[in-house]
Fold this protein.
Amino acid sequence: MYKTVAETAKDISMPEEQVLRYIYTGRIKAVHDGTEYLVNSSQFDTYHEQLERIKEEIEIWRNTPIPEDPDIKDED
């Protein structure tokens, strides 16, 4: 499915100007229909999958308790 630059920017949480810069430099593939650039949104599927996986890993890391230090000696 093709999206406009504005829709793409909103979808990947980037400013429109940065999306346009990425299109001009070839980092984002797009077609020009004569009036505007259209971006195939399927090229971001991997990006979204990786982003979700990283969010899950961060959440697991945050919820993992800190283990007790085995070197601590209880001396009274």
Observations:
- The mean pLDDT is 89.
- The beta strands are 2-4, 30-32, 37-40.
